[in-house]
Amino acid sequence: MFRVATGTRRVALVLVAILLLVLFLFPQQSHGLLHSLGQPIARIVAFPLWVLAGINQSLQEAWKGYVALGHVYQENQRLRQDIQSLQSQLNGLRESAASSQRLAALLQFKQNVGLETVAAQVIGQDSTNWHRGLVLDKGERDGIRTGMGVIAPSGVVGRVVKITPVSSVILLITDSNNAVTGLIQRTRDEGIVSGTLQGGVRMKYIPLLSAVRERDVVVTSGLTGEFPKGLLIGTVTLVKKPVDNLFQMAEIIPAVDFSKLEEVLVILSPYSLEVPAEGPAQNLQPR
Amino acid sequence: MKAIAFLALLVGLVPFQMTLLGLASLGSIRPDLCLIAAILGGLFAGEWKGLALGIVLGFLQNQFSAGDLWLNLIAKGGSGFVAGRVSLYVTNTSTVTALVVVLGLSTLTGALCLLVGLTDEGWTAGFYQARSILLPEAMYNTVVGAGLYWLLARWLPNGSS
Questions:
Q1: ipTM
Q2: Which of A212, A226, B66, B104 is surrounded by the most beta carbons within 10 Å?
């Protein structure tokens, strides 16, 4: 049952006994000794410890991340929805602000122009590619009639060519089938302003002796009924003086940017209503 | 169901053409969906239904165009009718048939619009319009029309009108 230790075992047993004896009899000294012995060993062990600790930490973080992923995903989705909602609100507010500015300008213009007008919103383009036209959201029910002039704060837009009870079609001044009598503001020469096939505007039948030049402002002359005198049409960009013709011709850049037109005024006033040239024209300077 | 789809087509196509289709315009040229619808109606449902569809769509289109009131009505109605007649004479109408028919009828109706709308600038303006409106629109119509025919031919059951 009890085996007697022999040889090396016996020696080991004796050493362990001595060690225990020393530890119990001289605790302070033995602690210092062990500490001194443990320092270099601790340094050696520290390196793999750091490595493994790092791996462990990474694994723990990965695990925590994995476990928490569902929550994070949900939170991410919620935050994305919040951002989208706020972005939508921001866009709405920006649109409202821009709309308010446009409508304020239109209202100011309406008061300045001193004409009986009805404001309308552009809701579409001409249904074919063959005409430069726009569709408005106001029609016969709102007092609009065929032939009435259409203006915007920046200048002349066109004239009404078709109406339904709730909508109307306008032909822009850039359409080659449209013509308005124009007046060169500086020289007071009159001519016919009509659209071109390229989408521009041209003033024809300018007297040959006219001193028209580039950057001259062209306004409505008021001779045709739909537009009172002094509404801005555009600015001359090029003057052509053909040698074999009795008249000059001027290319005009329209004052209105038709691609960004959203609200317009349809002139309801009795035709041939005279307006002082200085009044509206001052508010209708080219941008 | 068919009646609702037809009604939706009638009510929705012209507004769509005037508003959202602008987003698909290439160089300010939009495909004429009313013409395409009339032609496809003729090809799938025969000349009389094509004629009726074209007349109704052309009439609605005229209400929102600065052009003459009769022009689209005649052009679209005639296109639907001709397309229906073509489908009678061609044994197996295919995407290629639709492509040729749409191209031909788009060019013809475009030429009609061009002739009617000729200004005092005469043929110089006419050639310009042919180059800048007629041909691009005809090409766009052809691509869209043939594509829609290809889709509808797979979607609609045989003999459906």
A1: 0.84
A2: B66
